[in-house]
Amino acid sequence: MYKDLKDKVVVITGAASGIGAAIVDRLAKEKCKIVINYFKEKKVAEEMVKIIKNKKGDAIAVYGDVGNEKDIKNLMAEGIKAFGEVDIWINNAGHETPYPTHEMPLEAWESVINTNLTGVFLGAREALRHFIETNKKGNIINISSVHEVIPWPRFAHYAASKGGVKLLTQTIAMEYAEKGIRINSIAPGAIDTPINADKFADPEQRDSVEGLIPMGYIGSAHEVANVAAWLASSEASYVTGTSIMVDGGMTLYPSFKDNG
Ligand code: NAI
Ligand code: BGC
After folding, report:
1. Distance 93 CA to ligand 1 centre (A)
2. What integer pLDDT is reported at residue 138 of this predicted model?
3. What's the domain range around 113?
C-alpha cells in the first residue's frame, strides 16, 4: 500500500475491462477516488462503481471515446465536478485487429491510431492543461506495450501506435519535467485479458506465446496494476520518461536463451 495515494483523484480510460479494470481495483484499495471511463461496457462500469461504493470508496462511471476531443474534455469535466480536481491520468484504452498490411483497410488503420495514439495525446493534453492551471505536480501513465519495441507482423497499425506512444511519452516527460509533472509508460507483454481471449483459448496459440516468455507464463492484469500503483505513488518520485516492461522477460531476446 502507498499511503500518499489516499484520496488522490484518478482518471482511467478503457477502465471497464482487463488491465484498466485491474488498475481500478488496485487504486480503489489504495483509497483513490476514481473516474472509470467506459466505451462499450456501461453496465460493467456501473457495477464497478457500486462495488467500490459498497466498500466505502468513491468512483463515477463516465462514457467516452478517447479518440474524441469532446469526450476527453467531458471526462475531465466530470472528474472535476465529482471530486474537485484530478491528480493522476491513466491512458489505458486500446484495441487491435490483425490484417496483413497490404490488405489493411484505411478505416482499421485509422481506428487503431485514433484510439491507441491520438487518444493518448488527447488524454495527456487534457491532464497537462489541468495540472498547469492548478499548479499541480500531476502524474500521467500511458499503457503502451512490448510492441513499442517489438515489430509485430499483421499488427502494423498497433505497433506504430505503441511506438508512437513511446516517443510521445518521452517527449512530453522532457517538456514538463521542470514543472514536477511525471509522465511514464508501462509496456505489458502477453497478459490474460479479453483482448487476447480468442488467442489464448486455443492451446496451441497459448503454448506458442508462452514459449516467447522467459518466465514461462502469461501475466495477469493485476501484475500490471501493481506497477501502475507504484508509478502513481510518490515512491516513484524520481521516475519520468521511462517505459517499464512488465512482460516476464519477453523483450529480452528469448530465442538467445540456449544460443552460444
Ligand atoms: P481489453 O480489451 O480488456 O480492454 C481495452 C479497453 O479499452 C476496453 O474496455 C475497451 O472498451 C476500451 N476501448 C477501446 N476503444 C476505446 C475507445 N475508443 N475509447 C475508450 N475506450 C476504448 O484489453 P486490455 O488487455 O485490458 O488492454 C488495455 C491496454 O493494454 C490497451 O492499450 C492494450 O493495447 C494494452 N496492452 C495489452 C496487453 C495484453 O496482452 N492484454 C499487452 C500490452 C498492452
Ligand atoms: C497485445 C497482445 C499480445 C501482447 C504480446 C500486446 O500489446 O495487445 O495481444 O499478446 O502484446 O505480443
Report:
1. 5
2. 98
3. 3-245
Q: Does residue 12 sit within a domain?
A: yes
- pLDDT category at 14 given cuts 50, 70, 90 is very high
Is the pLDDT at 260 greater than 90? The verdict is no
Q: Is 145 in the pocket of ligand 2 (CB under 6 A)?
A: yes
Looking at the domain assignment, is residue 100 inside a domain? Answer: yes
CATH number, domain with residue 178: 3.40.50.720
* Pick from 169, 166, 165, 209: nearest CA to 189: 209
Average pLDDT rounded to a whole number, residues 50-61: 98
Mutate to test the pocket of ligand 1, among 66, 193, 210, 217 (most ligand atoms within 8 A of CB): 193
Mean per-residue pLDDT of the chain:
98
User: Which pLDDT score, from 0 to 100, does residue 259 have?
Assistant: 87
Reduced to 3 states, what is the DSSP secondary structure of residue 52? helix
Backbone torsion region of residue 22, taken as left when φ is above 0, otherwise alpha when ψ lies between -120 and 50, otherwise beta: alpha
The verdict on residue 251 lying in a domain is no
Number of domains present in the structure of the chain:
1
